From TrEMBL:
It comes from Zophobas morio. Catalyzes the reduction of all-trans-retinal to all-trans-retinol in the presence of NADPH. It comes from the Eukaryota. InterPro entries: NAD(P)-bd_dom_sf, Sc_DH/Rdtase_CS, SDR_fam. GO terms for molecular function: all-trans-retinol dehydrogenase (NADP+) activity. Residues 1-21 form the signal peptide. This is Short-chain dehydrogenase/reductase 3. It is found in: Membrane. Keywords: Lipid metabolism, Membrane, NADP, Oxidoreductase, Signal, Transmembrane, Transmembrane helix.
């Protein structure tokens, strides 16, 4: 009897909290949260030498953050940093192959000594070879996993301890729309991007249970972006679903981080579309896919 009374009490409490949380979310749609300041933060961006990472490095630096740019391409990474410095903002370039765990820890130590403790980590670097699964070699699949998902584990292991110690920080992961819906010719890529969504969600729960409340988690899933990563995009409604501009994606990423969003797509409506479609039988999802007929072709 006591058990039943306690369960009924828990269910009532859950409903009250549920309605309160919904009300809060609705209120936030009308009165958006204030942007978290990034001035004075140390923001590390992986893959800062090109594309979305480069734009993110510019954007954070222009908002007063100190940017630490990591890339395996020393030349383009240095170009990003020189351009930021020329505009009077603060940035530092480090060569780092994020697929190599030891190197990540070594370079992280150097960054701590030379720049300071990283407070915002943006795991952005990624690759996307496009071909059928049977055409992917073992080495290629391992490389995609090493960069697109394992590297996130290494950088998080390197920088999260300081964030936890200071109960201050933010981890941002660039997944993809391919991390929410599987797509032809990029099977390993999709696996890694789904894995990134899972990694972020699981880690966020781990920290919540450890009562580390001031380390934020933001996962961003952009649609096809004009950086050259997607070599042969397939877009049916090009007037309404054109390739995104990397600068616009970077703006959306920074806004999501500064408003503490947990999971967003760029553009935002795609998250609703994907979630809504999943409520229906598989065949309905196929109809929606075929209607939009967007994705990509194999690289060659
Ligand atoms: N471009 C798109 O259509 C698109 C769409 C959705 C998601 N994304 C994701 O956004 C992220 C950035 O994509 P992008 O289009 O800007 O890519 P990009 O190819 O323009 O830039 C990637 C950068 O990562 C660097 N890099 C590659 N391997 C590295 C390594 N081992 N260590 C460190 N740096 C390395 C490259 O040198 C390059 O500067 C990726 O995670 C990608 O999956 C891209």
């Amino acid at each position: 009897m006591a058990d039943i009374a306690s369960t009924v009490k828990d269910i009532c409490l859950l409903w009250i909290k549920f309605v309160f949380a919904l009300g809060k979310a609705a209120y936030r749609k009308v009165v958006p949260v204030q942007l978290k300041p990034v001035k004075g933060e140390i923001v590390l961006v992986t893959g800062a030498g090109h594309g979305i990472g480069k734009e993110l490095a510019f954007l954070y630096a222009s908002e007063g953050a100190t940017v630490v740019a990591w890339d395996v391409n020393t030349k383009t990474n240095q170009e990003t940093v020189s351009e930021i410095n020329q505009r009077g903002y603060k940035a530092y370039a480090y060569h780092c192959d994020v697929t190599k765990r030891e190197q990540v820890f070594e370079v992280a130590k150097k960054v701590r000594q030379e720049v300071g403790r990283v407070t915002i980590l943006v795991n952005n670097a990624g690759i996307m070879p496009a071909k059928t699964l049977l055409d992917h070699t073992q080495e290629e699949i391992e490389r995609i996993f090493a960069l697109n998902v394992l590297a996130h584990h290494w950088t998080i292991q390197a920088f999260l301890p300081d964030m936890k110690k200071n109960n201050h920080g933010h981890i941002v992961a660039i997944s993809s729309i391919a991390g929410l819906m599987g797509s032809e010719y990029v099977v390993p890529y999709c696996s890694t991007k789904f894995a990134v969504v899972a990694l972020m969600e699981a880690l966020q729960q781990e920290l919540r249970l450890e009562k580390v409340y001031n380390v934020g988690f933001t996962t961003v899933c952009p649609y096809v972006t004009d950086t050259g990563l997607c070599k042969k995009p397939k877009i049916k409604f090009s007037s309404v679903m054109a390739m995104l501009n990397p600068a616009d994606v970077a703006k959306a990423v920074m806004k999501a981080q500064r408003t503490n969003e947990v999971l967003v797509t760029v553009p935002k409506y795609l998250l609703y579309l994907v979630t809504f479609t999943r409520l229906f039988p598989y065949e309905v999802g196929v109809l929606v896919r075929d209607f939009f007929d967007s994705g990509l072709y194999a690289d060659s």
